[in-house]
């Protein structure tokens, strides 16, 4: 029987810090949750929730409420609402797998060191996979698009006002594509003369209108110019079925194999706090090439 070494725990230990360092949307989803042994499990986790808002009323001191004529059919606390929590299974979004070979005759490195390096590189590849999913998850979960990004100061002012009216108390972050990021850095409102937390020499900006700004590669934005969201709005999961090396019968070395599942989740309630700007919804044509609908910016320009 071929010799096998299991690296499930090793891979989980490698990918967790890689996720913290390389995830484009890590503040929105928190630390990566890893789960070992997901062979037949299609569900990331189950939750219990209810969507009934808190009810407030006035205490009724009418003489005929709960007393006298209303003794048997009224209550001074008001109508009683029954609270029932429903169970919800949250599925994984997709699967992942890799298969590599390391031949002792040709690898030209210590085999164990080479395996460790490949596991590190595979973890980085998974984080890039997560980045694409997170951008898609956030844009598709957004409750509204704030429109054009042609005036970033006005846009961020509108976002700040929206979150204030929502009574969002947690920190809000704007994930922006490189073009929008540079527009923010170059905006008149982000000059040192206005005591802005901006360093134009290093092309860095910390806050605009009380919202922290994070630059994200365009390919992870899923068609949005800006994604506004509070931190810790969702959760990210990695399910590990197997990560192993196994002695090959086809060459003098080992096969490095891995497979599992991954996913991200945002509750329906939290989706209300996700906003986009300049969003262009991606779509696929019959030829498989990327196509898209008109963006908000394009609509605005057409309307002028």
From TrEMBL:
Segments of skewed composition (Polar residues): 281-290
Source organism superkingdom: Bacteria
Compositionally biased region (Basic and acidic residues): 291-304
Region of interest (Disordered), residue spans: 280-304
Protein name: Phage major capsid protein, HK97 family
Organism, as annotated: Fructobacillus durionis
